[in-house]
Amino acid sequence: MKNIVKFYPKGKVPAKEIAIKAKKENLQGLAIPMPYNKGNNSSEYTNLVNLKKELEKEKLELGLIAPFFYAPEIWEKYPNKRAKKSDVDWPSLSWYKPLCPIYPGLFEERLALLEEAVNKINPVFIGLDFFRFPLFWEELDDHMILKTCSCKGCSSLDKRTAIIYQMAKEVKKRLPNLLITIHLVPFIDTKTTKITGQDPKLLAQAIDSLSPMLYNNLLKKEPDFIINTLLKQEDYTVWPSLEIAWKDNLYLQEALTKYARILYFHWPD
Ligand SMILES: [Zn+2]
Protein backbone atom coordinates (compact mmCIF):
# COMPACT_ATOMS: atom_id res chain seq x y z
CA MET A 1 0.00 0.00 0.00
CA LYS A 2 1.34 3.38 -1.04
CA ASN A 3 0.42 6.48 0.93
CA ILE A 4 0.14 9.32 -1.54
CA VAL A 5 -0.64 12.83 -0.35
CA LYS A 6 -2.11 15.67 -2.36
CA PHE A 7 0.14 18.67 -2.16
CA TYR A 8 -0.09 22.21 -3.47
CA PRO A 9 3.47 23.46 -4.01
CA LYS A 10 3.67 27.22 -3.59
CA GLY A 11 7.19 27.48 -4.95
CA LYS A 12 8.77 28.65 -1.71
CA VAL A 13 10.20 25.38 -0.41
CA PRO A 14 12.95 23.78 -2.55
CA ALA A 15 11.98 20.51 -4.25
CA LYS A 16 14.73 18.62 -2.43
CA GLU A 17 13.36 19.64 0.97
CA ILE A 18 9.84 18.61 -0.02
CA ALA A 19 11.07 15.18 -1.13
CA ILE A 20 13.07 14.61 2.05
CA LYS A 21 10.14 15.67 4.23
CA ALA A 22 7.82 13.32 2.35
CA LYS A 23 10.24 10.44 2.83
CA LYS A 24 10.57 11.19 6.53
CA GLU A 25 6.81 11.13 6.94
CA ASN A 26 6.73 7.70 5.40
CA LEU A 27 4.90 8.71 2.24
CA GLN A 28 5.38 6.88 -1.03
CA GLY A 29 4.47 9.78 -3.27
CA LEU A 30 2.82 13.14 -3.83
CA ALA A 31 -0.13 14.04 -6.04
CA ILE A 32 0.12 17.56 -7.40
CA PRO A 33 -2.64 19.58 -9.06
CA MET A 34 -1.54 20.04 -12.64
CA PRO A 35 -0.80 23.49 -13.95
CA TYR A 36 -3.41 24.01 -16.66
CA ASN A 37 -3.14 26.44 -19.50
CA LYS A 38 0.26 27.69 -18.53
CA GLY A 39 2.08 27.63 -21.85
CA ASN A 40 4.99 25.45 -22.80
CA ASN A 41 7.75 27.26 -21.01
CA SER A 42 5.93 27.82 -17.78
CA SER A 43 8.12 27.76 -14.69
CA GLU A 44 5.43 25.63 -13.04
CA TYR A 45 6.21 22.80 -15.45
CA THR A 46 9.93 23.20 -14.79
CA ASN A 47 9.32 23.13 -11.03
CA LEU A 48 7.27 19.94 -11.27
CA VAL A 49 9.84 18.20 -13.46
CA ASN A 50 12.40 19.14 -10.84
CA LEU A 51 10.17 17.94 -7.99
CA LYS A 52 9.65 14.63 -9.78
CA LYS A 53 13.42 14.19 -10.05
CA GLU A 54 13.93 14.88 -6.34
CA LEU A 55 11.09 12.51 -5.40
CA GLU A 56 12.61 9.77 -7.56
CA LYS A 57 15.90 10.12 -5.70
CA GLU A 58 13.96 9.21 -2.54
CA LYS A 59 12.10 6.45 -4.43
CA LEU A 60 8.82 8.34 -4.23
CA GLU A 61 6.36 8.84 -7.06
CA LEU A 62 4.68 11.89 -8.49
CA GLY A 63 1.10 11.87 -9.68
CA LEU A 64 -0.88 14.67 -11.27
CA ILE A 65 -4.39 15.64 -10.27
CA ALA A 66 -6.23 17.08 -13.25
CA PRO A 67 -9.28 19.22 -12.47
CA PHE A 68 -11.13 18.53 -15.68
CA PHE A 69 -14.46 20.33 -15.83
CA TYR A 70 -13.54 22.84 -13.18
CA ALA A 71 -11.41 25.86 -14.00
CA PRO A 72 -12.16 29.21 -12.35
CA GLU A 73 -10.14 31.10 -14.98
CA ILE A 74 -12.20 29.63 -17.84
CA TRP A 75 -15.38 30.13 -15.85
CA GLU A 76 -14.59 33.83 -15.46
CA LYS A 77 -13.45 34.39 -19.02
CA TYR A 78 -16.01 32.34 -20.97
CA PRO A 79 -19.47 32.56 -19.38
CA ASN A 80 -20.93 30.37 -22.14
CA LYS A 81 -18.80 27.42 -20.95
CA ARG A 82 -20.23 27.55 -17.43
CA ALA A 83 -22.71 25.06 -16.06
CA LYS A 84 -26.16 26.59 -16.22
CA LYS A 85 -28.94 26.37 -13.71
CA SER A 86 -32.37 26.57 -15.33
CA ASP A 87 -31.27 29.26 -17.78
CA VAL A 88 -29.69 31.40 -15.11
CA ASP A 89 -25.99 31.27 -14.26
CA TRP A 90 -24.69 28.85 -11.66
CA PRO A 91 -24.98 30.37 -8.19
CA SER A 92 -21.63 32.06 -7.63
CA LEU A 93 -21.69 31.96 -3.84
CA SER A 94 -19.09 29.26 -3.41
CA TRP A 95 -15.70 28.27 -4.81
CA TYR A 96 -17.30 25.64 -7.01
CA LYS A 97 -17.46 27.06 -10.52
CA PRO A 98 -18.16 24.06 -12.77
CA LEU A 99 -18.01 23.96 -16.55
CA CYS A 100 -20.57 22.22 -18.76
CA PRO A 101 -18.91 18.95 -19.90
CA ILE A 102 -20.73 18.88 -23.22
CA TYR A 103 -20.02 22.45 -24.25
CA PRO A 104 -18.78 21.94 -27.84
CA GLY A 105 -15.04 21.39 -27.98
CA LEU A 106 -14.46 21.74 -24.24
CA PHE A 107 -13.57 18.09 -23.58
CA GLU A 108 -11.03 18.08 -26.41
CA GLU A 109 -9.58 21.39 -25.23
CA ARG A 110 -9.10 20.11 -21.68
CA LEU A 111 -7.71 16.77 -22.84
CA ALA A 112 -5.15 18.49 -25.08
CA LEU A 113 -3.90 20.49 -22.09
CA LEU A 114 -3.73 17.35 -19.98
CA GLU A 115 -1.72 15.58 -22.68
CA GLU A 116 0.66 18.50 -22.84
CA ALA A 117 1.23 18.46 -19.08
CA VAL A 118 1.68 14.67 -19.05
CA ASN A 119 4.26 14.86 -21.83
CA LYS A 120 6.18 17.55 -19.97
CA ILE A 121 6.04 16.12 -16.47
CA ASN A 122 5.76 12.39 -17.12
CA PRO A 123 3.87 11.49 -13.91
CA VAL A 124 3.35 7.93 -12.68
CA PHE A 125 -0.43 8.39 -12.58
CA ILE A 126 -3.12 10.96 -13.13
CA GLY A 127 -6.25 11.53 -11.10
CA LEU A 128 -9.17 12.83 -13.14
CA ASP A 129 -10.90 15.27 -10.84
CA PHE A 130 -14.22 17.03 -11.56
CA PHE A 131 -14.56 14.50 -14.36
CA ARG A 132 -18.34 14.47 -14.26
CA PHE A 133 -21.46 16.47 -14.82
CA PRO A 134 -21.60 19.17 -12.17
CA LEU A 135 -22.68 18.38 -8.64
CA PHE A 136 -21.75 20.39 -5.60
CA TRP A 137 -21.68 17.30 -3.37
CA GLU A 138 -19.48 18.83 -0.69
CA GLU A 139 -22.43 20.86 0.59
CA LEU A 140 -25.17 18.28 0.32
CA ASP A 141 -27.17 17.79 3.47
CA ASP A 142 -29.52 14.95 4.32
CA HIS A 143 -32.13 16.33 1.93
CA MET A 144 -29.78 15.58 -0.97
CA ILE A 145 -31.17 18.28 -3.24
CA LEU A 146 -28.92 17.78 -6.24
CA LYS A 147 -27.99 20.83 -8.31
CA THR A 148 -26.43 20.22 -11.68
CA CYS A 149 -26.14 21.70 -15.16
CA SER A 150 -29.56 22.09 -16.71
CA CYS A 151 -28.59 23.57 -20.06
CA LYS A 152 -30.47 22.17 -23.07
CA GLY A 153 -27.76 19.63 -23.93
CA CYS A 154 -27.43 18.32 -20.38
CA SER A 155 -31.11 18.00 -19.63
CA SER A 156 -31.40 14.29 -20.44
CA LEU A 157 -30.07 12.47 -17.38
CA ASP A 158 -30.23 9.10 -19.14
CA LYS A 159 -27.28 9.88 -21.39
CA ARG A 160 -24.82 11.10 -18.82
CA THR A 161 -23.20 7.84 -17.71
CA ALA A 162 -22.58 6.87 -21.36
CA ILE A 163 -21.03 10.27 -22.08
CA ILE A 164 -18.65 10.19 -19.10
CA TYR A 165 -17.76 6.57 -19.93
CA GLN A 166 -16.88 7.50 -23.51
CA MET A 167 -14.81 10.44 -22.30
CA ALA A 168 -12.90 8.24 -19.83
CA LYS A 169 -12.22 5.73 -22.59
CA GLU A 170 -10.90 8.49 -24.82
CA VAL A 171 -8.51 9.74 -22.08
CA LYS A 172 -7.15 6.19 -21.68
CA LYS A 173 -6.80 5.79 -25.44
CA ARG A 174 -4.78 8.98 -25.69
CA LEU A 175 -2.64 8.26 -22.60
CA PRO A 176 -2.37 4.47 -22.76
CA ASN A 177 0.86 4.09 -20.78
CA LEU A 178 -0.25 6.02 -17.76
CA LEU A 179 -2.16 4.77 -14.71
CA ILE A 180 -5.43 6.69 -14.63
CA THR A 181 -7.78 7.00 -11.70
CA ILE A 182 -11.00 8.99 -11.42
CA HIS A 183 -12.19 10.83 -8.33
CA LEU A 184 -15.74 9.75 -7.66
CA VAL A 185 -18.48 11.61 -5.86
CA PRO A 186 -18.90 9.38 -2.78
CA PHE A 187 -22.67 8.86 -3.11
CA ILE A 188 -23.29 5.85 -5.28
CA ASP A 189 -27.07 5.67 -5.30
CA THR A 190 -28.68 5.52 -8.75
CA LYS A 191 -30.01 9.07 -8.59
CA THR A 192 -26.60 10.62 -7.91
CA THR A 193 -24.91 8.40 -10.49
CA LYS A 194 -27.38 9.55 -13.16
CA ILE A 195 -26.66 13.17 -12.34
CA THR A 196 -22.86 12.98 -12.20
CA GLY A 197 -22.63 10.44 -15.01
CA GLN A 198 -20.08 8.55 -12.89
CA ASP A 199 -21.08 4.90 -13.13
CA PRO A 200 -18.44 2.88 -11.25
CA LYS A 201 -19.19 -0.28 -13.23
CA LEU A 202 -18.58 1.43 -16.58
CA LEU A 203 -15.64 3.54 -15.44
CA ALA A 204 -13.87 0.51 -13.97
CA GLN A 205 -13.77 -0.88 -17.52
CA ALA A 206 -12.48 2.35 -19.04
CA ILE A 207 -9.56 3.25 -16.78
CA ASP A 208 -7.24 1.73 -14.19
CA SER A 209 -8.86 2.53 -10.87
CA LEU A 210 -11.63 4.38 -9.08
CA SER A 211 -10.93 6.85 -6.31
CA PRO A 212 -14.07 7.59 -4.29
CA MET A 213 -13.70 10.79 -2.26
CA LEU A 214 -14.60 9.44 1.16
CA TYR A 215 -14.38 12.71 3.10
CA ASN A 216 -16.52 11.67 6.03
CA ASN A 217 -15.52 14.57 8.28
CA LEU A 218 -16.44 17.11 5.62
CA LEU A 219 -19.75 15.28 5.17
CA LYS A 220 -20.25 14.98 8.95
CA LYS A 221 -20.48 11.22 8.70
CA GLU A 222 -19.02 8.48 10.87
CA PRO A 223 -15.88 6.63 9.70
CA ASP A 224 -18.13 3.68 8.89
CA PHE A 225 -19.15 5.69 5.83
CA ILE A 226 -15.65 5.00 4.49
CA ILE A 227 -15.78 1.28 5.20
CA ASN A 228 -19.31 0.83 3.89
CA THR A 229 -18.71 2.69 0.63
CA LEU A 230 -15.52 0.70 0.03
CA LEU A 231 -17.43 -2.53 0.65
CA LYS A 232 -19.87 -1.59 -2.10
CA GLN A 233 -16.98 -1.10 -4.52
CA GLU A 234 -15.15 -4.29 -3.64
CA ASP A 235 -15.39 -5.63 -7.19
CA TYR A 236 -13.31 -2.78 -8.59
CA THR A 237 -9.71 -1.64 -8.38
CA VAL A 238 -9.99 1.23 -5.92
CA TRP A 239 -7.56 3.83 -4.61
CA PRO A 240 -9.54 5.43 -1.81
CA SER A 241 -9.31 9.22 -1.38
CA LEU A 242 -9.37 10.05 2.32
CA GLU A 243 -8.93 13.06 4.54
CA ILE A 244 -5.40 13.48 5.89
CA ALA A 245 -6.70 13.04 9.45
CA TRP A 246 -6.99 9.30 8.74
CA LYS A 247 -3.37 8.83 7.78
CA ASP A 248 -1.74 6.48 10.30
CA ASN A 249 -5.07 5.78 11.98
CA LEU A 250 -4.75 2.21 13.19
CA TYR A 251 -8.40 1.19 13.00
CA LEU A 252 -8.70 2.26 9.40
CA GLN A 253 -5.23 1.17 8.29
CA GLU A 254 -6.16 -2.45 8.76
CA ALA A 255 -9.05 -2.11 6.33
CA LEU A 256 -6.87 -0.24 3.87
CA THR A 257 -3.84 -2.47 3.49
CA LYS A 258 -5.30 -4.32 0.50
CA TYR A 259 -5.43 -1.18 -1.65
CA ALA A 260 -2.45 -0.37 -3.86
CA ARG A 261 -2.66 3.36 -3.21
CA ILE A 262 -4.44 5.63 -0.75
CA LEU A 263 -4.72 9.28 -1.75
CA TYR A 264 -4.85 11.66 1.20
CA PHE A 265 -6.16 15.19 1.01
CA HIS A 266 -4.01 17.13 1.70
CA TRP A 267 -0.52 17.71 2.98
CA PRO A 268 -0.04 20.87 4.99
CA ASP A 269 2.74 23.13 3.76
ZN1 LIG B 1 -24.71 21.62 -19.65
- CATH hierarchy: architecture: Alpha-Beta Barrel
Helix content: 25-40%
CATH topology: TIM Barrel
Number of discrete helical segments: 9
What is the class in the CATH system?
Answer: Alpha Beta
- The strand order across the widest sheet is 8-7-6-3-2-1-10-9
The beta-strand count equals 10
What is the N-to-C order of secondary-structure elements (H for helix, E for strand)? EHEHEHEEHEHEHHEHEHE
Q: What characterizes the major β-sheet? A: 8 strands, parallel
The amount of beta strand, in percent, is 15-25%
Spans of at least 5 consecutive residues whose pLDDT stays below 50 are none
Question: How many domains make up the coordinates?
Answer: 1
Globular, elongated, flat, extended or rod-shaped: what is the shape? Answer: globular
CATH homologous superfamily - what is it?
Answer: Glycosidases
Taking all Cα atoms into account, the compactness measure Rg is 18 Å
Tell me what the structure shows:
The protein has 9 helices and 10 strands. It has helices at 15-24, 43-57, 72-77, 106-121, 160-174, 190-196, 200-206, 224-232, 250-256; strands at 2-6, 29-33, 61-67, 84-85, 88-89, 125-129, 179-184, 209-212, 241-243, 261-265. It has 269 residues and is an alpha/beta fold. The longest helix is centred in the middle third of the chain and has 16 residues, at 106-121. The protein has a single domain (2-265), classed as Alpha-Beta Barrel (TIM Barrel). Helix content is 34%, strand content 16%. It is globular and about 50 Å long. The model has no long low-confidence stretch (mean pLDDT 91). The strands form 2 sheets. The protein has an 8-stranded parallel beta sheet with strand order 8-7-6-3-2-1-10-9. Strands 4-5 form a two-stranded antiparallel sheet. Bound molecules: zinc ion. Zinc ion (ZN) binds at residues 83, 100, 102, 149, 151, 153-154. Zinc ion is lined by residues 83, 100, 102, 149, 151, 153-154.
